[in-house]
Amino acid sequence: MGTYIARRLLLMIPTLLGITLLVFSLVALAPGGIGAGLQVSGGQMSDTSRVMQMQAYLEDRYGLNDPVIVQYGRWLAQISPLKFGPRFQRSPSGAWVRPPRDLPEPPLQGWFPAASQEAVANAGTAGLAAFDAMKAQDANDRHRALQRDSEASRRAYVGTVRATREALADWARANDRKDLLDAKGAADPARFEGMQAVPGSPSWDALAKAAEAMHVARLQAIERAAAERASFDAQPYPSIGLPLIPGTMWLGPPDLGVAFSRNRPVADLIAEALPVTLLLNLIAFPIIYLIAIPTGVLAAMKRGSWFDSASGAIFLMLWSVPTVLAGVLLIGFVANKQYLGLFPVSGLHDTQAENWTFLPGAGTRGWLMDMVWHVALPVTCLVYGGFAVLSKQCRAAMLDNLSADYVRTAKAKGVPRMEVVIRHVFRNSLLPLITMFVGIFPAMLGGSVIVERIFSVPGMGTLILQAIDLRDREIILANTFMIACVNLLALLLADILYAVADPRVSYE
Amino acid sequence: MRNGFGFKDLVMLALLLAVAVSVWLSMVQRDRQWELLQRVDARMAELEQRMQQLRVAPVLAAPAASAKAAPAARDESWARPGVKVEWQSEVALASDPAAQPGFAEGGEFTEIFEAQPAKLVPYISTDVYGTRVIESVCEGLISLDPKTLKMHGQLAGAWQVDPDGLWLRVQLRPEACFSDGSPVTAEDVRWTFKDFVLNPLIEAERSRSLMDNITDVKVIGERTVEFTFSKALFTNTLNAMGNPILSKRFYTQFEPSQINQATGVLFGSGPYALARCPKGPGDLAGQWTPGNDVVLVRNDRYWGPKSPLASRRFKSIKDDLARLVAFRNGEGSMVLPTSPQFNKIAKEEPDFAKRAFMMKWINMRCGYSFIAWQCGPRPNGKTPPFGDMRVRRAMTMLLDRERMIRDIWDGIGIVSKGPMNPESPGSNPAVKPLPFDPDGAKSLLAEAGWKDRDGDGTIENEKGEKFRFEYTYATGGEISEKLARFVKDSYAKAGIEVFTRPVDWSRYQDLLKTRDFDAITMGWSANSPESDPRQIFHSDSVKEGGDNFIQWKSAKVDDLIEQGRRTMDEATRMLVWQQFEAAIAEEQPYTFVRVAPWLRFVSRDFGNVITYRSGLQPEEFFRVGGGVVPTPAN
Prior knowledge:
The complex is a heterodimer of chains A (about 500) and B (about 625).
Chain A: H1 2-29, H2 36-39, E1 44-45, H3 51-62, H4 68-79, E2 82-84, E3 89-90, E4 96-97, H5 117-133, H6 139-174, H7 189-192, H8 202-233, E5 242-245, E6 249-251, E7 258-259, E8 264-265, H9 266-301, H10 306-319, H11 323-335, H12 367-383, H13 387-402, H14 405-412, H15 417-438, H16 440-446, H17 449-454, H18 460-469, H19 473-501
Antiparallel strand pairs in A: 2-6, 3-4, 5-6, 7-8
Helix pairs in contact in A: 1-19, 3-6, 5-8, 6-8, 9-10, 9-12, 9-13, 9-16, 9-18, 10-13, 11-12, 13-15, 15-19, 16-19, 18-19
Chain B: H1 7-56, H2 62-67, E1 86-87, E2 108-113, H3 128-137, E3 142-144, E4 151-153, E5 156-161, E6 167-172, H4 186-197, H5 205-210, E7 214-221, E8 224-229, H6 235-241, H7 248-251, H8 256-261, E9 272-274, E10 294-298, E11 311-316, H9 320-328, E12 334-335, H10 339-348, H11 352-355, E13 356-361, E14 368-373, H12 389-397, H13 401-408, E15 414-415, H14 438-447, E16 468-474, H15 478-493, E17 497-503, H16 508-514, E18 519-524, H17 534-537, H18 555-566, H19 570-587, E19 590-595, E20 598-603, E21 606-607, E22 622-623
Parallel strand pairs in B: 2-11, 2-12, 16-17, 16-18
Antiparallel strand pairs in B: 1-5, 3-4, 5-6, 6-8, 7-8, 9-10, 10-11, 12-20, 13-20, 14-18, 14-19, 15-19, 21-22
Helix pairs in contact in B: 12-14, 18-19
């Protein structure tokens, strides 16, 4: 058994890699690409959004310009507990402080050669000198100031790179060289590398000016980054994680990343949404099981009776009502005060519930009852469609066993009927239910998009739907990763439970 | 006998579970009590601190009194000599709620939104819902008068504008203070711009990109601050003075990374304060997070005219029907109905108006929708025929926009006539939308060389090329589908072939940037009475992926835009914008389709609900007391 479990666990790693790679590529292939939702939202655009400036910044911030596979590698490195490079540090506020990122290379080195090694080295030395000059200051203030300067000059440099590319595109257009532009009308520096420079036109002068500004900005960015790096290396804060090979490899907490669309850690977003979804599902699933399974058992015992037909018909009828319709009907009639007005329309708590006692009393419903009252309609929506499949499965399994030889033998030797059904038939019928049972673990985390939308429940369904709308890669990936993990573990659990429930199954 | 799991065991297990659950529940309850105690404790500490401040400065109200001194005594020593000082009258509500029948203080006003703000941090939160909340908590140096849309000093008591538009000197009101009672100083203003918005570690890139024209903010005196600009532009004044001023004391408590990731760090000098605003970095766990209602409480130390409502709540309900039902059930005081809901209730429920104000009006925040015509080459080298002004005018005249509004938008909306908001003083009253005139359009097309030459029902040019184009629209809405069918039919009648091309909204940016469309439909939103038209209509914005995605060039419009941008005087500039609008209406680079009005239902439990040119002013609402039913205010 042990080796079997170990083998299954190890097999999960390539499966997870496959799943995340697939999802990553799908997000990257989606129209507009990763992060497309960042630039547009809603049905109208504002003419003041300065799309171009935003873009250069966002592309640099999230590395959206790199090939998809590089971005995927970066995501893996981020989520992996095994990390390379210097250990991160933790500032007093609890935020992780990372070493400065490498600067992108300037484009078009064939025409406008980058600064010499010496100039770069000089800039680096100047940065170190700047750090030395600040050494006496408080480490926290110093690092923050250097970080700020470094980030500002990096951003200026990235902006000038962008401007140079634009100037290049203008130059290509002015010289009627459309072949040098890519499908989006942007200049592709790679296509220019082998070409001869042709100075002496207004568009060339603009290009040369932009390239010069770029190189100046680059040197400054190198200098500032060197200062920040020196300050980081001086350990202004304690390091986090466990060192494996000092300076190159360490163990750290996996990082789910920061959501593009909200600029918040994905882990925080999930921590907010998950309890809500869990609450609903933890109420809904027991109700489904407690009603569907006894009904299925009874239906099997009284096969062909009115109870069997009626329960089957009603459950199938419920199952075929779309949730969207049911939700709208519940709101329109049950919640609406024009009709029944029995339940609230939205939210999980009354606005006053914070000030109430926990249990009913002191003239109020109490916090707990209030919550039950609020979740009643969404839970109804989650529950009603689940009866049919489960009770039919249970009924079929029971019937299979009821007609088995051992049941006849048991009856013949005089075992009471209930004893036969509960002790023998029901137990043996549980096997197919195990498969269904493990399916609820991933479903618990998934949340229902429709129910959450109709009843304005801020759960996982809402989170993932918004993330898909906005192409928020980090949320989508984190979610998929989490659900995939739970799913794989649940499947493993199912296989183990088989072995426990049925002595005939063995994995040795 | 076999020792199996019997009924007794089941009962025991159930009992055990019940005990465990009740222990857990009692622990939860204990936690709630503890939290309540903490809140009471914090409140006590705050009260104590206030008491102390009162003892130290017993004449807190004194500066407010001195501000009311006669204008003759105004001290202008802070100002640059030789430039006119624009003194501002006192801050007042646009309409006095206390003068209304049934006026009472207190009560809560609940707005039901469609979505929730992602975060409530000034400059970092840029969505429309977040902005609404932030506007009530933070104040800028100026605000717009709801009735006239003119700038009026809010935190600023007076200012001077450089006649050449390169600097701006502002004197803050002496009585202005943040909700903790500390005064708003020139250093707060400088810090807000230089160390918050322009700090690259703060992820306020969207707001920052609008401020690239501000070169410096200098503290001149305790309450005097001076902005300098790199270029003379009319937008400078609004960019410098229209944005919220933050408290340096409060925001410097947090690290930039904490501010970036915060969801509810919102603190300012406005009439309301965020209910769960953290007091400091240690308190961040208690901040507001999305998924909860946003609650604002009245700022009892507000330096200006106090608001009657004790608190305001912002709920979010995504589903259209649920939103309306929640309003009917009294779970909200204001809701945004959809157009069909508004119409249906107006027609079928005469009683509804007795319980709620049903409001529909055009204000400065109403954007317009349009069809844009590609005037330049597409990336595939083909140029659609819309470069000719006659063709563009004909395209507009072939569309019955009145009928579109009637049939597609249930009659809600007005025909748009140009890029200026109809409520803006820059809107030209002489400009009317082009009439629906298929015959006139056909003759214009014939003049441009497009007529039916081979009798097959479609029109051709001299070379025999048929007039056909691609109409691009965003998928996912019934309205846009209806619109596409209407457009196709309208042009088919004139012998023009339209290929509809539905695309996902997320691809729009790409299509616009690469100019890869013949005709595209979308809308521009509006947020202030005037915006800079350069980005959309100037020929310079054709290149570098600017928003002149139709590649339309007009020397006349370019001149007018440049002239308007450089005109510092508001009244003169509005005249330029009026000429600009006339020129656009003449040229029809867009077919302007519709201005969407605001639709609101507000419960009649509230009084002083007035529709302004700027929108609504919930700061002035009050909860009606004493059984009086308020009358519609306008």
